[in-house]
Amino acid sequence: MMAISIKAPLTRDEARKLRAGDSCLFSGVIYAARDAAHKRLCELVADGKELPFEIKDSVIYFVGPTPAREGEVIGSAGPTTSYRMDAYSPILIGEGQTGMIGKGKRGVEVVEAMKKHGAVYFGAIGGCGALLAKCIKSSEVVAYEDLGAEAVRRLLVEDFPVVVVIDSEGNNLYESGREAYIASLG
Amino acid sequence: MRKINAVLISETVKRLCIEANCHLCEDVKECIANAYNQESWPGAKEILGRIMENYEIADKTQRPICQDTGMACVFLKIGQDVHVLGDITEAVNEGVRRGYRDGYLRKSVVRDPIDRVNTGDNTPAMIYFDIVPGDKIEITVAPKGFGSENMSKIKMLRPSDGLEGVKRFVVEAVEEAGPNPCPPIVVGVGIGGTFDKAAYLSKLALLRPLSEKNSDPFYSRLEDELLEEINSLGIGPQGFGGRTTALKVNIESMPTHIAGLPVAVNINCHVTRHKTEVI
Question: Which DSSP letter does residue A103 get?
């Protein structure tokens, strides 16, 4: 299948055009954040404080990379399992986030928020951190340096390969992909 | 008594941490390559191809195969005729500390499950001691990622649940995990013992090379049957559909109580890592 080139930040209009099963290549600025950073970001929202990056139209990559060696932009940087962010994602989607990159299932509350606001959940290949790191052209810590691997990073990516797992209408590739394969067996 | 300096344990553990995280075992590579050749679903085959490309890049660039370089699970088989000069536990932790620092591996351990402050050096290691005959020490380092660890399960079945109960529990654990543990997965199953021993057996099962079957023909057949059932679920690589949901099922068993049938399922991702050295 031909991959669709998409830009980050991702506008709501662009996000709404994508469909579960679409292969995409992301280029632009995305933000790395996982468990501990999500907790802090949502505490800021609850306190009415400003977030450390522009959340509107943002794409967040659930990743905690390995340290970079000298001369490298970043270490290995594949996706972490997304359901652990389910308590936080609806809050950030409510603030304007339009894209999430991770792997694995999402809860009903996340999908409802995605449908309501127009956001997309992308999957990157889990366990391919060395391969995916090649698409990351720069990396800079923008908040929570004390969290080490869990700090928030601004990543410049080029043709970063993802698949739309859940689209803004709630269609889900984990369900349709499995059904299509089983149907193909006849 | 043969004397072994604890420093030698640290050096070995350090080396094994780096080796295991950057170079996938040959038996796992072979199993993924076979799955690639046998997978008929195009999307699934493409993902398996990417997975192969990834471990080749890791081999060449000394980058970790996966960013989750795991908790360091260290298995020590200590010969009873060995006298270690120094603190063994501290020696293992020092090896992990240096391996994760010098190998540019991720530090993924928090000092307390509730307050969740990172220890900064990936210690403490999860250490499993075993006393065996002889005058050597066999050290295995198996970094364990938590995407798959979180999908693991244990249940105290009733003896009347029998073989069918065991099979249902294993297949249901895999189906419920779905895409979360990064399929294709390796399924470690522990049957028997006590609550904790069953879990330990399921972890030991993940250390057995994928090219080897259980030496008991009954359990060897059960491994094949479970693999076939799991690969009929249709979950596929990454959960996007396909045949290759699991690469292998490894079962370990031991005697248990007249009232019990403990079963544990320890799931590992396709980055099933372990390296062993004997000193």
Answer: B
